[in-house]
Amino acid sequence: MLQDLRFALRLISKDRWFAAVAVLALSLGIGMNAMVFTLVNAVLIRGLPFPDSGRLYMLGWEPEPGSSTSVSYPELQDWRTQSTHFEGLAAFSNAGFNISDDRALPEQARGARLTANAFTLLRQQPLLGRDFRPEDERAGAEAVVILGHNIWKNRYNADPAVLGRTVRVNGTPATIIGIMPPNMQFPTQAAMWMPAIPTEAQQTQRTARFLAVFGRVKPGIGRAEAATEMNGIGARLVAEYPDAHTDLKRVAVQTFNERFNGGPIRIVFLSMMGAVGFVLLIACANVANLQLSRAARRSREIAVRIALGATRWRVVRQLLIESVLLGLMGGVLGLALTLVGVRLFDAAVADAGKPYWIAFTVDYVVLGYLAAICVMTGVLFGLAPALHVTGTSLNEVMKEGGRGTAGGRSTRWTSGILVVGELALTMVLLVGAGLMVRSFLMLYQMDIGMKPDNLMAMRVNLSGTKYDKAEVRATFYRTLEPKIAAIPGVEASALTSSVPPFGGTWRRRFEIDGRPARNPGDQAPEVSSVTINPAFFDVAGVQMRRGRMFNALDGNPGVETTIINERMAAQFFPNEDPVGRRIRFINPEPPANAPKPAQPPAPELWRTIVGVAPTLRHNSPQDAEPDAVAYLPLRQHPDRSMVLFVRSRMEAGGVMNAVRREVQLIDQDQPVFTVQTVAQMLTQATWPYRVFGSLFAIFAVFGLVLSSVGLYAVMAYSVTQRTAEVGLRMALGAEGRQVSWMFLKRGLIQLAIGLSIGLSAAYGVSRVLRTLLVQITPTDPVTFAVITVLLSLTAIAACLIPARRATRIDPLIALRE
Fold it and tell me: In sequence order, what DSSP letters do the residues of 162-198 get, joined into one string?
């Protein structure tokens, strides 16, 4: 083995140009694979940053395979008492907290409500103070709160004396009992925590599912055993309470990454792994072709060694050691590319709100993966040439090569197969990248329906019991509106429950007055509803198409009105004027297993359509068309969470400070938060397509370059090996175009076969990206056509250059050599 290693090093050092090209190609493929695996390891594999986190699992009902729902408080108690495979079960629910006191301005913080044993199961203890106790989560207990390290440092200057101090959380006094260590943000970016105290109804209602449950299995208990036990418990509960589990039969046992990083996120990262896998295969095929050409030059030497008694395995082993050495060299350079790529990606997503437990670092798992692919790559690109050259007999070598320099027909066949494979892989890679890039371009060019210039948004969330009544919320907003409009420098302001673009809406079913009654079992049509005040459309910079805007009377008793957008008018009132028509929302039907309410909900009132507005996009960019929207007057539907829309040429910070002062004159505990310009919102909404689209494009470009270089190298080598033949043909009268066509034809045949295979594969593989695409289909004909032309032109150019060079061969020199 050592002898083979020394011999391989001598050969590599002797053929430096071949080694440099091979190492560079491999480093690109290996580096990209290691970089993407680093991301996948952080997002999908590595667990929470807590001691022995491999024994922590999320639990929930599983309505569909791979999905998970919340759990009710009675079900949590049943699971706790009946489970024997878990050290304990805890639960949480995400929450937003408005924190205020007399020392600093109020602010809004993400947080969670936890059961008292949650931090104990996580093996996390407060840095200062104490943990929650069982008595803290009982009804009527004094409100307590644990602060995260960041809010303690930034709001209270890391003052230990803050322990025991009373602050107002959502307007309710609460005592600070603890401070958590740095980077503790469980479950998702939480900055403070309060006990999960169920209401009287939640303590008994099995259908009131509001808790996310997690547990730590006992040592020696595997995931499969835990799942078997939990499904046994679940089956008993289904049998005992059938009305509460009509659609819930199984219990899901998932890792935290499976629960929080599933769906499109998982598809994106696995798709990237597939893409860089294709790049690596293209690089391997490229280097394998180089190895094949190089081995053909050594065919006489290898055949003679076998004839003198060397076993075939002995020669293959020596050739594979050389290949693995090249793979390891590529891995060293690839590691440097990995570190740079991971750092750049981390910087690109720094403001994307990634979960706190995700850290893009090269750990021992990544290094192990890197070492494995270096060795596997060396074997992959080295095995075929080694088997091919050692399988050729001495007689055949002498007959084909003469001087041991010809590749022979079998070499050309093997090389051709590798080229076809490169082209097919490149086609699939380019189509995937093209679809992602086209999605980003469609998103960038999307018309959101409004003028974003000098427009900013900030959110107000009226938390706490004092805002439980709609009339109290309406009074707050009614008082705030003129104060904001009067701020110097504010050109216009408005209130809305949904921020265009992509702000999210409430989907509601409705019926139209005068239309025939639905058949039994038919679903009523559905639209999105958005709450706005009368100034909304003016601030958005759009004009009504028909009818009028809301006025000060709309929303008062007896003046129930609505404004619909053009999309809704075209969809439900074609060829008629909807102004003056009436619609009525339908209260959602409670689940069959839901407890009967104390009193039925008030019936919805008929609303008169008073105007038709332009279509603004409130829904996901992945939807082909904007939603049909019905706008409701703020006076009648004052939501707890509203957005202040402000058009101003002032700096965002100055506007926010002015707005904050006015808000606190109305309620000193009410913060203003999430201040962004609409341009910033667009950038934030489109960053996944920009970042991942760019990555796919980079992978595709490298794949295209590698396959083009590989095709050029094969053609150039073919011209070199057939110099004598070309000289003879030209001496006998062959014209330059005939000689050029002889080589070009072979490349075109390989291109046609590669494109055919690649198009078929791309047609199937592109469907994996369906959920990630915007405004285009996975079989977008424009993308497929452009990629086919691009790859064809590049491949033809790679073939044409060596083919034209063949026409400049001097017949006399060629025949003499």
Answer: GTT-EEEETTEEEEEEEEPPTT--TTTT--EEEE---
pTM of the model: 0.81
Write the single-letter amino acid at 169. Answer: V
Residue whose tokens read 């000098």: 454
C-alpha distances out from residue 32 to 20, 265, 597, 703, Å: 18, 19, 58, 11
In the chain, the amino acid numbered 470 is: A
The verdict on whether omega for the bond into residue 501 sits within 30 degrees of 0, i.e. cis, is: yes
Buried b (16+ CB within 10 A) or exposed e, 670-702: bbbbebbbbeebbeebbebbebbbebbbbbbeb
Supply the mean pLDDT for the chain: 85
Q: What are 583's strand-pairing partners?
A: 512, 607
Q: For 525, phi and psi rounded to 5 degrees?
A: -65, 160
Three-state DSSP at 350 gives coil
Instruction: Enumerate residues 6+ apart whose C-beta is below 8 A from 809.
Output: 723, 726, 727, 730, 739
Task: State yes or no: pLDDT of 586 exceeds 90.
Answer: no
- Nearest alpha-carbon partner for 433 in 269, 271, 206, 312: 271
For the stretch 520-533, what's the b/e string if a residue is b when 16 or more beta carbons lie within 10 angstroms of its beta carbon? eeeeebebbbbbbb
The secondary structure element, H or E, covering residue 696 is helix 678-721
Other beta carbons within 10 Å of 780: 19
Q: Is 309 helix (H, G, I), strand (E, B) or coil?
A: coil
Distance linking the first and last C-alpha atoms of the chain: 39
- Angle, CA 304 vertex, CA 301 and CA 308 arms, to 5°: 135
Q: Which residues contact 562 (CB under 8 A, 6 or more apart)?
A: 583, 607, 608, 609, 610, 630, 631, 632, 633
Contact 762, 432 (CB under 8 A): yes
pLDDT attached to residue 405: 43
Residue 236 CB: number of other CB atoms within 10 A? 12
Selection from 129, 244, 123, 109 nearest residue 180 by Cα: 129
Cα gap 798→708, rounded to integer Å: 6
| Cis bond before residue 219 (omega within 30° of 0) | no
Three-class secondary structure of residue 108 per DSSP:
strand
- Give the per-residue pLDDT at 390: 66
- Written as six digits, the tokens of 507 are 């989907």
Looking at residue 531, its pLDDT comes to: 93
Count the Cβ atoms, other than its own, within 10 Å of residue 486. 11
User: SS in 3 state form for 535-563?
Assistant: CHHHHHCCCCCEECCCCCCCCCCCCCEEE
Amino acid at 119: F
The residue count for the chain: 817
Q: How far is CA 30 from CA 282, 313, 327, 601, 660, in A?
A: 11, 27, 9, 62, 52
Q: What are the helix (H) ranges across 561-604? A: 566-572
Three-state SS letters, 419-458? HHHHHHHHHHHHHHHHHHHHHHHHHHCCCCCCCCCCEEEE
Non-local (6+) Cβ contacts of 16 within 8 A are none
Instruction: Say if CB 787 and CB 431 are below 8 A apart.
Output: yes
Q: At residue 631, what are phi and psi to the nearest 5 degrees?
A: -90, 135
The reported pLDDT for the residue numbered 78 is 95
Amino acid sitting at position 46: R
Which three-class secondary structure state does DSSP give residue 460? strand
* Pairwise CA distance, residues 172 & 463, whole Å: 10
Work out the angle between the directed axes of helices 408-444 and 364-390 (0-180°, nearest 10). Answer: 150
Which residue type is seen at 213? V
CB 25 within 8 A of CB 216: no
Task: Categorize the per-residue pLDDT at 300 as very low, low, confident or very high, splitting at 50, 70 and 90.
Answer: low
Tell me the torsion sign for CA atoms 174, 177, 181, 187.
Answer: negative
